[in-house]
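Prompt: May I have another protein with tokenized structure?
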Amino acid sequence: MLKGKSTIELFDGVTGKKKDEHINENLVTNAIANMFDLRNELPARGVDLTSILSRITPLYPTYLRGILLWDNTLPNNPDIIIPPPGIKCIGHAGSTYAGTNPLRGTFNENESEVNGNSIRMVWDFATDKVDATIRSVSLTSILGGDRGWMTPWESGTLFRSRVNGGSQSTSTIQYATTSVNTLGATYVYMGELRRGVQYYVADRNDSSITILEQTYVSPESIGIFNTVGTLSNNQPHCTETLYSVASSARFTNLGSCSIIDGNGNLVHVALTGTGGRNARIRTVNLITRSIISDRTITLSEDVRTDAAAFFKGKLYASSTARNSICEFGDNGLFIRSFNTGFTTNNRYTCYGEYLFSSASSGNSLMTDGTNYIVTQAGHDNGTNAAALMNTAGLKPPLCVVLTESSPGNTKQISYLTPFMATINNLSAPVVKNSLNTMKVTYELVQE
């Protein structure tokens, strides 16, 4: 069991005299426990569990030596691991740092120590860092402390990273590699929507959507002659079942015009007509294999027809006139443009309360439907940003990254670097300004 407390000290920026001190205890979230909850099905999907465990242990320092500072308090709920929309990251620190980012502090190696079953971690913030009021603190990974949450992108900082240390090699940790190209259709991966059941969908050039369910045997059902854990196709432990759901028009561009929403439903956008202005939005429950909503809106301006998403009542597509991903209301009217020159034909994906997209240049969009950030290449672990999604078999901060070149086939386990390992709501706000330096100390004890 982990127990911890934070100490925030403010010092006069000129004299160095201590002016204030705040000590608060934390709630440990389920982030760390979730990293080891890989579910029974994973061994049957080509995952080397021993390799994963060897790469995420020891937890310290990689996964427990970053700090996130928040402008508001957080719910005292151990299942809250990804920051909820509405809270703003106003400061962060992970590794040693001497740059100009006004939100980022530096790790104080001299005052930090490991002593038996306890850890003392210290980060310093100079007078030009974090001019804000702090109401809560969270431990995170080193990479997450370097990056922050929805904070301006900085070169060399990584928002997500593969659990095998960022290697691009597909011969190491793979979620699964199943090339499903049967019956003349290319199937696009939608996630593990039920435990142990993987879902793929395909447009077969007719007015229906084809659903492919892959069901893997449980470890208890593996016989003495079964071969499991390999990455080859047509594995004997995998059962594939095809279903079809009828509609009155094609589900075009399924790979780049559909997302899985927060309720686990597929939401598809078909952009047709002059300038792609007719947006038909269909929501499909893949588990019950039924269309639960179907409507069409007319957009106020021309858009590219090769990528779109309908998320939290708003439509996202690339405006051809503005040369940018834009947001439209459910009445089709333009709301806002995100970044000139940032368009995409890549897949949008959801992770919890957030929508992600990436451009061919490697730039990435992240939005909660209200706030947003556009980052440059390097948003994940050094390559062009790939589609990000969660599945029923993985819990935050673990997620699945789908490669851009083949979004339906290659899936690798990653983690969101700025997860919240602890929630530490302060008993009183800490007001940091340019007259003060600040020291944040976090002590963890394993009992």
User: Anything to note?
Assistant: The two ends are 5 Å apart (CA to CA). The first strand starts at residue 2 and ends at 12. Residues 101 and 295 are 45 Å apart (CA to CA).
